[in-house]
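Re: export button greyed out
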Amino acid sequence: MEPPLVSRLPATVARTARMKIVSAIGPTVVAAGLIWAILQPYRVTLLHPRGQGFWWLVIEPPLLVAGAGVVFALLVARPLLADLEEHDAAAR
Amino acid sequence: MQPHAEMIHWAFAAGILLVGLCLLCEAVVGQEVWRMRPWRKYLWPGLAFVLGVLLWPVMAFFTNSSIHMYAHGSWAEVLMLAGGAELGLVHGRLHSPLWRLTWPLAFVVTGTAFIVHEQNPWFFARSAFLHHLLGWTFIVAAIFPLLLVWRPRSAVLQAGFALMIVTVSVMLFSDRDVAPIFGHLSSLAGTPHR
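Workaround output, generated via the alternate export path:
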């Protein structure tokens, strides 16, 4: 059985690394979506909605990326970080 | 009222991105921590299963050709099978690890369907390029879920599997119905939208 990705490092370093990775994933994805929106503002049809059809206003790729990041950070990463802390505290 | 094909690709890309991020987190924290909350173990297999279910309306409404229907229908079947098998395994209803062979099967079927249902050459337009690229990516990356059948706790394989799923979502987000690829766009492809 192989240990999780970062646990071959010393225990404290591995713990910190895991925490950092899990807490960074959501914001990184959100940042990627926002950077995409800045680089290609024409992909965000909400910025120029006149004359756009329903689907063009609903499905906007940079916002979908940012939205996925927000959903992940709030619904998955946040409780996972709490569990990770609890697990590490129990192991100490 | 029907959305463009590219919009469907983007919507699925968002779902696939969430699956990839969950898999990545599981690889980082380990299965023990990931499964500390009962709902979390069902998260990515459930998402995969739902994506499979959602492929059925895609099959029904995007009937450009028979081959499109076969491709979307076969994806729906194999994704539901793999997602369902994973749900059965994490719930404890299924016991044989060989059920995880449904993932490499899903990847190979998906990859083949991507390649077969794209009837234009690589540099016809961006969508054609991405269909070929996605197809070959799925076929080559089937090695990750295949090896995971025998080494299910390998963090490297889990991370490889997760990053491959994230890569697929990036490719789907890059898709446009009519757009150039590396400066190439066939005159037969149509007029690009913004």
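The radius of gyration of chain A is 18 Å. The button fix ships in the next patch.
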